[in-house]
Specification:
Elements (H helix, E strand, L loop, with lengths): L3 E5 L2 H18 L3 E6 L2 H9 L4 E7 L10 H11 L3 E5 L2 H14 L3 E2 L2 E7 L4 E8 L4 E6 L5 E5 L19 E6 L25 E5 L9 H11 L2 E4 L1 H6 L20 E5 L5 H4 L7 E6 L12 E4 L2 H15 L1
Parallel strand pairs: 1-2, 1-4, 2-3, 3-10, 4-9, 5-9, 11-12, 11-13, 13-14, 14-15
Antiparallel strand pairs: 6-7, 7-8
Helix pairs in contact: 1-2, 3-4, 5-8
The structure holds flavin-adenine dinucleotide (FAD).
Flavin-adenine dinucleotide binds next to helix 6, helix 7, strand 14 and helix 8.
Amino acid sequence: MAGVWVLGENREQLFELLSIGRSLADKYGTTLAAFAFQDTQAARDCIARGADRAVVLKYRGQEGPLDVFMPTIVEEVKGKDPDMLLIASTYRLKELAARIAERLKAGLCSDCIKLVFNEEEKSVEMERLMYGGSAVQKVVCLSRPAMATIPPGTFEKAEAGSGPGKEGDVDEIVQTNEPAVTMLERKVREREAKDIREARTVICVGRGFEKKEDIKLAEELATVLRGEIAGTRPVTEELHWLPESLCIGLSGIQVRPDLYIGLGVSGQIQHVTGLRDAKVICAVNRDANAPIFGVSDLGIVGDLYDVVPKLVDELKKGF
Ligand SMILES: Cc1cc2nc3c(=O)[nH]c(=O)nc-3n(C[C@H](O)[C@H](O)[C@H](O)COP(=O)(O)OP(=O)(O)OC[C@H]3O[C@@H](n4cnc5c(N)ncnc54)[C@H](O)[C@@H]3O)c2cc1C
């Protein structure tokens, strides 16, 4: 038995992995299986979106680290011998993926952003960024299964009815083993923000803003365009003017909006990596040589403190 297996923490991650998983499974000439954690409906929906088999992994104890599922996944892999395991690159799943790979002595390409099937070798060439995003590393796993973690937002979601479209049963595996880690307390992070990976318009705040209060300029633009605010790493992770979860780029998230507008963003590769799939990229920067203009469809060379209020006024007239 073989197959391509996908594992995600939630429906969105599973649906994204199903789209790349389906195309690889078809090229391998094999089946596609989806593994969901705790959520039977998500597993069922995976069948409608292209999976041939869906498994829901359940645990009767407290919610917490996913390492409790590691022995079962390892045993499933040993028994069914899949060709590939594609796992969402989240904090918890990256840790789980590394443990599974170690147990199986399998090769694992982390934060993989592209997978290309090699017809002759019947293998998959995986690409990941390295040296802070300035180089692309190509990886081929010689061991079996080939494993990759894939950042959420890398692939489009599989649509309902995109696969074989048949009804399928959902297998349930209930864990009984004790987790290695006990969760003592659960605290919701302060400054929790919206998930901007779904936003159609993203206004990105860069270090060109002089102080936190000035972000209201970007918010006004976001309001008139019905968009969401995001930031570069200095603005989110260093200055904490915006939540860290809004950082776009290599160490943040990947977005794929219809429209991205960078305000006072220089456009370093580590940032641009996170927006390469935006349909239209616009930038406002007072430096005509800023690298962001090299990847922009539209650019305004000017001071954002002059340009943005004018832009908002003009857009208000048009809406
Ligand atoms: C391993 C690694 C990972 C990283 N990951 C990320 C990541 O995920 N995301 C990320 O964003 N960065 C990341 N970085 C940092 C990245 O290299 C850049 O430093 C960062 O993106 C720069 O942010 P910025 O454009 O806001 O600031 P700056 O580079 O300081 O640019 C500010 C820009 O604003 C312009 N400006 C200034 N004043 C005005 C004004 N009044 N009007 C208009 N324009 C103005 C300037 O001309 C300049 O171009 C990473 C770096 C490393 C080494």
